[in-house]
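Q: Here's a chain of 268 amino acids. Please give me its 3D structure as tokens.
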Amino acid sequence: MATLNLGPGRSVYYEYDAAPGGKPTFVFINALSGSTAQWQAEIGPALRDAGFGTLCWNFRGQADSAFTAGDALDEGTITSDLMRLLDELSPSKPVLVGLSIGGLYAANAYLRGADAAGIVFINSLRMDGLHLGWVNDATARLARTGGAQLVMDAMLPHIAGPAFLEKMRPNALGSAPYEAMDETSGIYQLMDGARSASWDIAYENIKIPVLNLTGTHDKVFYKPDVVAKLLARLPDAREIVFDDLGHLIPVEDGKRTADALIEFGGGL
């Protein structure tokens, strides 16, 4: 548990366990509302038990990572922070694992020169357009109106698998009051910054092995035709589809996520 200083008032919190014998290190890149805890609960320990290294970190604006009022917490900033963290720690054979928009940050880090042995997209493949822009703008408006509780109540039935939805039901729909999210908070600044991210990237130039994990109960971001089109542009890609899971695959089923990563890492 440590922090990388990025300048006055700026830092990223990380948890790094080096890989023994130069084996691959899984580098986890959160979704906008994620944290190291979602990876460390089950997935990180399983990977380390299998002989791999792990690096979990939080974006500026997430828990224990500091930002200043002048920071733009957008794609450029988060990708740059990821690249700097990789340069600082030099993990062996990094496998960049991105959940949701974290996959975009992973791809852009590689395309801008970061060392990587592989990339894992977890419900990340999407294209710019009216639908995605609408979702991003609406989510930010929900947060401004009723905070994280309203976002969860409105979005979760459309992105989660049935088992996870049932598990989360006691925490939703009246369990807490709606309170507008502070627009200067880290999580809101990350949501706002993500609205300008471009998903039009050069998939053909990702020359390393790629694993794509898809949860079909993600009814907001998962578009089968889009995923198929983008997978076809990747030179070396394979896919695992979970018909009973949704957008948050690592949280919904950590064991199967870890199993998929272990198999992928073993092939590297």
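Q: Can you summarize the key feature?
A: The first strand starts at residue 2 and ends at 7.
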